[in-house]
Amino acid sequence: MSASNRIMKHTVLSSGLHDADIRPPALMSELMRLSLRDAARFFGEPDALESVACPACGQDEARPAFEKGGFTFAQCGACQSLYVNPRANAALLDRYYSESEASRFRAAQFAEGAASQRRYHQLRSNASWMGQVAGEMDSETSPTYADVQTYSPAIFDEVAELGLFGALYSIDPQVPMVDSEKAHVTSLRLEESPPLDVVSAFEKLEHQYAPQGFLEQLHQRMAPDGLLFLTTRTCSGFDLQVLWDKAPYIYVPEHLNLMSIDGLEQLVQRSGFELVELSTPGQLDVELVLQVCAANPSLVLPPFVHTLLADRDPLAHRDFQDFLQKHRLSSHVRIAVRKQGE
Ligand SMILES: [Zn+2]
């Protein structure tokens, strides 16, 4: 049986989550403004950009999809993933992340702690998801847990409450890590880490220069049968499919890769992992499209989408969002994979 037939967990979540809870408009607008300005500054020279094959499936069959913020998004002819091509090389991206004002702004916002309150829904939901899947692990000792490039240290408090894990590690944290009452966390560089049993990398795939290389590096540091948990945005989801280049909060270099469901399946398998779950529990697609329409009354939607949004009530919108979750058609995707035993 193929992986795509085997896994389908039809996750449907409802917690009254609203877009503004996760992405406060003023903060997001400022982060996006700084990012676009810094991207032009760091990546503005055509020589700084290089052409790449599809980051998801590896095929080189891209065609231009749209321009945004001065960058070209291409669409893979094989797996339909969207990706920025040409893109800044890995060294330039590293420099951007260590030196740009946008990076400093983002780290400061997260470090202030207010961000963890806003991200409470996401963190708790991610922790309980990992607890459910990792709770089925066959392990004689408490498994180790590591979060990669941590932006929200509060994830460790949520994870500690599960009572499931032994040592907790933050790999290459992006904000200062301070022990809380609930969790003692050791900060490490990836190359120093012991074999890791359970690893999370939330919202990282979309801005990797080379997602396969990123996953392969994690794979190397993981114990046999270790679990890796990923979240990202997918171009297969409703809001991106409908809004395409008009989608808000899609910008370089935060979103270099908006991979399709098909592409994501191929990516994790090409990186040596076995798929455990791939679902789209997003709650915000319909709300996002409604918001964009309210802000841009001249936007022309496909007739069916217009009818659904303009002529149907909130109950229909909620039912439709449930449908998107159930059938892997929301743009927020979460993936659990296992390192195949050796
Ligand atoms: Zn592809």
3D structure, described in words:
This protein is of the alpha/beta class and 342 residues long. It has a single domain, classed as 3-Layer(aba) Sandwich (Rossmann fold). Helices cover 40% and strands 20% of the residues. It contains 14 helices and 13 strands. It has helices spanning 3-7, 19-22, 25-43, 90-99, 101-111, 114-118, 120-134, 154-161, 211-221, 238-243, 261-270, 285-295, 303-311, 314-326, and strands at 49-50, 62-68, 71-76, 82-84, 87-88, 145-148, 168-171, 185-188, 196-202, 222-233, 257-258, 273-279, 332-339. Helix 3 (25-43) packs across helix 4 (90-99) and helix 4 (90-99) crosses helix 5 (101-111). Residues 1-8 have low confidence and may be disordered. The structure holds zinc ion. The site of zinc ion has 9 residues, from loops.
Topology:
Layout: H1 3-7, H2 19-22, H3 25-43, E1 49-50, E2 62-68, E3 71-76, E4 82-84, E5 87-88, H4 90-99, H5 101-111, H6 114-118, H7 120-134, E6 145-148, H8 154-161, E7 168-171, E8 185-188, E9 196-202, H9 211-221, E10 222-233, H10 238-243, E11 257-258, H11 261-270, E12 273-279, H12 285-295, H13 303-311, H14 314-326, E13 332-339
Parallel strand pairs: 6-7, 6-9, 7-8, 9-10
Antiparallel strand pairs: 1-5, 2-3, 3-4, 4-11, 10-13, 12-13
Helix pairs in contact: 3-4, 3-5, 4-5, 7-8
